[in-house]
User: What shape does this take?
Amino acid sequence: MKFTRRTLLKITGLGTMAIAMLPRVAFAGRNSLRTVRTGIQPGNKTRLVIETSERPSYTLSYPTNQLVVTLSNTAANASLAPAMASGTLITAITQVQSGDKLQIIADLSRPINEIPRDSIMLLNPNGDNDYRLVLDFVAGTGAGAKTATTTSVAHSTTPSRKYTIVIDAGHGGKDPGCIGKGGTKEKVVVLSVAKKLKSKLDAAGFQTYLTRSNDTYLKLAHRASIGEKKHADLFLSLHANANPSRSMQGFSIYTLSEKASDEEAAKLADAENAADKIDVSGFEQFDKDIRIALSSLQQHAVAEMSVEYANGCASAFKRAKITQQPGPDVRHAPFAVLRSTVPGALIELGHLSNATEEKLLKTSAHQDKLVAAIVKSVQAYNFDV
Assistant: This one.
C-alpha cells in the first residue's frame, strides 16, 4: 500500500492545512525485490539489473572486488535466485538485510572504478517488468576506484524542479555558540558558511532561504518552523563543534532520533538545545497540527530521508578530503532544531576547540571547500523518493 498525503489524511484525520505542511514526498510502502540478473553488453560490459516493486532509492559503494547496491526501505527476497549470465565480472550475488535497508552484494572477479552516471539507468515499469535499476561497468583500477566508502549517486547535476532548501546558521545574537581559544565565535563562522552555501545553491538552480542573515537570536522551534512555512524539501543546520579534548577535530553529521546514538551525540544535543534556555522558561511548544503530523509513519519517512541525505553528505565531505571526526559517518540525537516534518541534518563543520581547525574554519578557502562538498551532497540527494 502506498501512503500518499490523501491516504495519510484519512488515517490520521488531519486537516488540509496540516497536510500542506508535510514534505512533498510520497509515503511509500515498503519496497520489495523482484529479480536480480546479470548480462553482457557491447564493449564487454557487465550489466547488473535489480528489479523492484517500487521506484528504488539507492546508493552504491565499492569495497575491494565488490559492488554493493544499498536499497532504502526494501525487504529481502529469500526465495530469489539471481539469474547469472556467463562471462561477466560478477561471480556471486548475495542479499543482506540491515534494518530497513537491503544490500545487494555482487562479488567481482576483478575490481571496478566508480560507475559513471551515464552507465546507470532507472527504468519505469514496462510490460511484465517493474522498476529496474540497470548498472553497466567494466574492470578498472584507476584513480576513480573506490573502496569501502558509500557513494550517493547523483541523479542529476541540476534539479528537475526548484527544490527548496532552508539553511540554518546555528546560534546568533546573545547566543554565540562555542568560542575557540583564539576568540572565534561559532555564530560568526556558520553564518559566513551559510551565506556562501546559499549563493552556490541558488546558482545551481535551487530555491534557498536562510533562517537568519545577520547576527540575530532565534529560538530553536522558530528555526524549525521556517522550514515548514517555506515548504522546504531539505533543512540544513550548520554548526561548529567543541570538545574537552583539544586534539579532537573533524566534521560530524547528525540526524534526529528520540534516543542519541552515543554519549557524545547526547551531550552535543543537550548543548545545542540549551540555546532556547537563554532567558526563556522552557521550550516553545509546537502547534497541535505539527505534533499530530509527526505520527510514527511520518517520523519513519522523514527519518529515512534524513539519514539518506546525511550519508551522502558524509561521503561528499570525505571525497573532498575534509577531516572527519572519529566515529560513525552519521550520528543520531534529539536535536530540537530538527524537529519538523522536513527531512534534514545538522552538520558540525569542525571543532573550534582545536587550535588548528579554529584557524582553518576562519579561512575563506576552507569555507569554500565545505560549501562545495555540501552543494555536491544536495545535488546527489534523491528528492523524488
In short: Residues 31-152 form a domain with the Immunoglobulin-like fold (CATH 2.60.40.3500). The first helix runs from residue 5 to 12.
